[in-house]
Design brief:
Layout: E1 6-10, H1 17-28, E2 31-33, H2 43-48, H3 50-75, E3 82-84, H4 91-98, H5 101-115, E4 123-128, H6 131-141, H7 151-166, E5 173-177, H8 187-199, E6 204-207
Parallel strand pairs: 1-3, 1-4, 2-3, 4-5, 5-6
Helix pairs in contact: 3-4, 3-5, 6-7
Length: 212
């Protein structure tokens, strides 16, 4: 696999972005950058009481991602390949999905201050899957706080991602439909996916693998 400076893997909850980021980092001998979801103290409470905890959960994610990204720049992003399991710009997807109008206005003011300082990836891999597939993958990983996530919420998240990436043009984009593949358990699926990532060019490209 050829070297890329900075790859960001994105997609809705349960699509497998962290698993793929780990595998790509291993293939590239790259630095791995993971979002701090498990340590967000507001996230479990958000899933049970979204109206009350959406804003603090969102601010926690925004600020922790900002500090991670700033540390990358200070280390020299181009000294070593980097693979992240999130795209900083996607933070606004969840803000617009979950926050009240007055909270969004406050959030946007903070976001604009920090976004201008962020490095843009050399490639974004947007993983998507059918909602029923996302739900099944969430059940398999069996995290306590994710048991509150409904199919309706997964559909809203998936739709927001589709809308966001339909207009995304800040970096080369590879859109991967992962509904019919198991890149974690099937080495052949992973090899096919890596070949697509390796050959991805400028603009937006699509990879729709079929079940073997």
């Amino acid at each position: 696999m050829k070297r890329r400076g900075y790859i960001a893997v994105e997609g809705p909850i349960g699509v497998g972005k962290t698993s793929l980021a780990r595998m790509l980092a291993k293939e590239l001998s790259a630095r791995l950058l993971l979002e701090d979801a498990d340590n967000n103290p507001f996230l479990p409470r958000f899933y049970s009481e979204p109206d009350k905890y959406a804003f603090p959960a969102q601010l926690y994610f925004l600020l922790t991602r900002y500090h991670q990204q700033r540390e990358l720049l200070q280390r020299d992003l181009f000294e070593q390949a980097t693979v992240a399991d999130y795209l900083f710009a996607k933070d606004r997807i969840f803000a617009n999905l979950n926050l009240a109008p007055d909270e969004i206005r406050l959030y946007e003011g903070i976001y604009k201050l920090v976004d201008a300082r962020m490095a843009k990836p050399d490639l974004v891999v947007y993983m998507r899957a059918r909602v029923e597939v996302l739900g099944e993958r969430l059940r398999k990983r069996n995290r306590d706080f994710e048991r509150h996530i409904s199919y309706e919420y997964l559909e809203r998240v998936s739709s927001a991602y589709r809308d966001f990436f339909f207009y995304y043009d800040e970096a080369p984009l590879l859109v991967v439909d992962s509904s019919e593949i198991d890149f974690v358990g099937n080495p052949a699926d992973l090899a096919d996916l890596i070949r697509e990532i390796d050959s991805a060019g400028p603009g937006t490209q699509y990879f729709v693998p079929r079940k073997r």
